[in-house]
């Protein structure tokens, strides 16, 4: 039997592919000379690509340029984004793309934001295409998806189809970029006639998790206590991150905290600094202030204003923190390792406080408790449907005044959908254990048999069988996404 490992070419976009493979828990290796049935490439094609595909290999290429196999392109274009190949969501992804004509999935538009007249919507190009060549196949996109996934940079913009509220978030919808790369990888396994084996994204093979995070940018008595009481009454463990400066100016922290709640820090000064030394000092001062007031060790942090840079990551590693969550780097995504190694657990960037300020700036009525509740529930439904974490946040200033309306409804939704309710730290701990549990996957195409086992026996495997349906599977535990077929070996 032969090991199934995905090969990753060590090119300029390899980091993006490696992030997706780590997020999905798929066994992989760097492959300068490929011997894997599926190989991932970014940008220009390596010299061996034609021979590899002709012999039966499957190449999945992000940011394709000047492809072999007589595949012609229609030149380059600058776009603001694309419609995803799964679900047709618009993905903000500004940049230079290569346009490939032909049949495919997703939509790139040369003429963006134009009214369709006479029924004509010209110069539309697919985002993802595939072609069988010889004994193998190629799956490709002219969008530099892997580079977009890893690029930093944030701006003030709308970020969700359910609201016009803006926030300073990552300039790229990276969760949709990652989903598009995963779709291409799935197509690669399908073209190879192999099942794809991956780890579950959530504890127990659940469809999602629910995390309530509160950034205490001022305690605003009794609002912080309101949030603690509402969450505790709903049996919902929550994560509170306390900023020292603003909580000094707007006091009212609870006298005691439930043991099951997470209390972290949100820095001394409510901002990000350029240098490692400034960020480290801000962390140390914030930790000391919070520990003196909550009476427990503080071992976690999220950055003020959702901002991130490499020097902050270096400071977090120095102080001994292992995870954080900054929507200026990414939001709505699965966890991933940021530059420097800190685990990021992305959050949804909407807060009732920002929504209220946005409304006041426009002279309209700020959202009330019921509207806020309905918004968060809509986001949770979407994240659940997409298989992503339901991780939402707010502050005591406004959310604390509507806690009894919003918090129980979110907890009840999670309970109905049988999704675990965790602190941010608990989900980070699950993810850190998962990172060491890549499965061993072996197959025998002649016999049509596949064997798979996870490195951690407490983690189930997800085996997606695409085609053909003559692959027999042996493993410990299986959960299949909708629309896939599993034929188990009769032993």
TrEMBL record:
Coiled coil: none annotated. It comes from the Bacteria. Residues 217-323 form the NodB homology domain. Gene3D superfamilies: Glycoside hydrolase/deacetylase. Signal peptide: none annotated. InterPro entries: Glyco_hydro/deAcase_b/a-brl, NODB_dom. This is Polysaccharide deacetylase family protein. It comes from Nonomuraea marmarensis.
């Amino acid at each position: 039997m032969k090991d199934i490992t995905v090969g990753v070419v060590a090119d300029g976009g390899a980091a993006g592919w490696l992030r997706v493979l780590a997020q999905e828990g798929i066994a992989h290796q760097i492959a300068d000379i490929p011997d894997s049935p599926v190989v991932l490439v970014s940008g220009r094609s390596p010299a061996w690509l034609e021979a590899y595909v002709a012999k039966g290999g499957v190449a999945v290429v992000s940011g394709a340029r000047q492809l072999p196999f007589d595949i012609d392109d229609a030149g380059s274009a600058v776009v603001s984004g694309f419609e995803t190949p799964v679900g047709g969501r618009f993905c903000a992804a500004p940049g230079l793309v290569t346009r490939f004509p032909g049949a495919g999935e997703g939509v790139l538009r040369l003429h963006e934001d134009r009214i369709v007249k006479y029924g004509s919507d010209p110069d539309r190009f697919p985002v993802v295409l595939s072609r069988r060549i010889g004994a193998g196949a190629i799956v490709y996109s002219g969008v530099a998806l892997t580079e977009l996934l890893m690029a930093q940079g944030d701006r003030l913009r709308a970020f969700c189809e359910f609201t016009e509220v803006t926030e300073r978030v990552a300039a790229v919808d990276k969760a949709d970029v990652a989903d598009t790369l995963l779709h291409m990888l799935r197509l690669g396994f399908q073209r190879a006639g192999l099942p794809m084996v991956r780890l579950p994204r959530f504890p127990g093979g659940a469809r999602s998790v629910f995390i309530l995070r509160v950034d205490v940018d001022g305690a605003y008595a009794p609002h912080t206590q309101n949030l603690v009481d509402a969450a505790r009454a709903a049996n919902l463990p929550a994560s509170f991150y306390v900023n020292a400066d603003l909580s000094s100016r707007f006091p009212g922290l609870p006298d005691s905290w439930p043991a099951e709640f997470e209390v972290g820090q949100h820095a001394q000064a409510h901002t990000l600094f350029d240098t490692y030394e400034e960020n480290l000092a801000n962390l140390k001062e914030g930790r000391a202030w919070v520990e003196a007031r909550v009476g427990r060790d503080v071992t976690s942090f999220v950055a003020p204003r959702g901002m991130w840079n490499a020097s902050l990551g270096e400071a977090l590693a120095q102080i001994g923190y292992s995870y954080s969550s900054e929507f200026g780097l990414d939001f709505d995504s699965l966890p991933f390792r940021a530059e420097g190694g800190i685990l990021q657990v992305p959050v949804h960037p909407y807060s009732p406080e920002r929504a209220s300020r946005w409304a006041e700036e426009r002279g309209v009525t700020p959202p009330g408790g019921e509207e806020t509740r309905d918004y968060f529930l809509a986001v949770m439904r979407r994240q659940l449907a997409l298989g992503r974490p339901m991780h939402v946040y707010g502050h005591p200033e406004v959310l604390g005044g509507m806690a009894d309306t919003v918090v129980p409804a979110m907890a009840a939704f999670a309970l109905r959908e049988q999704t675990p309710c965790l602190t941010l730290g608990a989900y980070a701990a699950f993810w850190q254990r998962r990172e060491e549990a890549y499965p061993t996957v072996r197959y025998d195409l002649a016999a049509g048999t596949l064997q798979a086992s996870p490195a951690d026996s407490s983690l189930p495997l997800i085996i997606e069988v695409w085609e053909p349906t003559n692959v027999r599977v042996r493993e410990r535990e299986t959960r299949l996404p909708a629309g896939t077929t599993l034929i188990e070996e009769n032993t």
